[in-house]
């Protein structure tokens, strides 16, 4: 059996209130930056700026309204058992369905959450196998959806280091205009090397509906490519079906989806990144920069 390198810690936010999901309760991250700091070893480097943002979260007034139904998919691997537990503890409990995937089947005895085991088609776990692994993950979701084992309106997809404010996401999804049968694809928009014709949603994950999932499952690209850029492949598949990443900024132009932590986002100049290693940020935001 695969074992974690360190003993797992118990997040203080795990099951501290009734689940939301339209059933009432309190949001576990509201005013709890200090608790989050103490929740597990993974947050030891939590920055003051991030803690302040956590403590200033404003939740939607519509948090107790019913719908839409939201499933949350997290993909991980065996060395990140703690991240899976923390994801469920801090936000995953507020999803209608929490769907963790890994390279192992592991039942968390504390959270009572079990990861589904999925491997790349090659059978080898590697960074360049993420496209293939996500193909297997989403194929599994599609099969369970068809069998009626899963029921959802939207699917949020992310890695184990993302953080979703589920009440606000649910309220945003509730207010979306009708897509007219075109499919929904939401997230922080990026453009491959600045190409406005190659826009994809990424960063902290993306949100699709069942029409978009069906379009992806009907696409042959993931079966033909080896690499890590599963988010780019998702966009390419959806583009073939006429589905593009929609603008998600609010009426002031502020981002609803972020691809970095609050402290990193605060320091980042999209137009002129200070760090040489961050120059790609300017290129991938090129279509939306004021020039």
Structural write-up:
The strands form two sheets. A six-stranded mixed beta sheet has the order 5-2-1-6-8-7. Strands 3-4 form a two-stranded antiparallel sheet. With about 290 residues, it is α/β, with parallel strands linked by helices. The protein contains ten helices and eight strands. The longest helix is centred in the middle third of the chain and has 17 residues. Helix content is about 30%, strand content about 15%. A hairpin with a 7-residue loop joins strand 7 and strand 8.
Q: In short, what is this structure?
A:
The protein contains ten helices and eight strands. With 291 residues, the chain is α/β, with parallel strands linked by helices.
The count of helical stretches stands at 10
SS-based class:
alpha/beta
> Which regions have little confidence, pLDDT < 50, spanning 5+ residues?
16-26, 30-37
Mean pLDDT: 84
The helix/strand series, from N terminus to C terminus, equals HHEHEEEEHEHEEHHHHH
State the helicity in percent bands: 25-40%
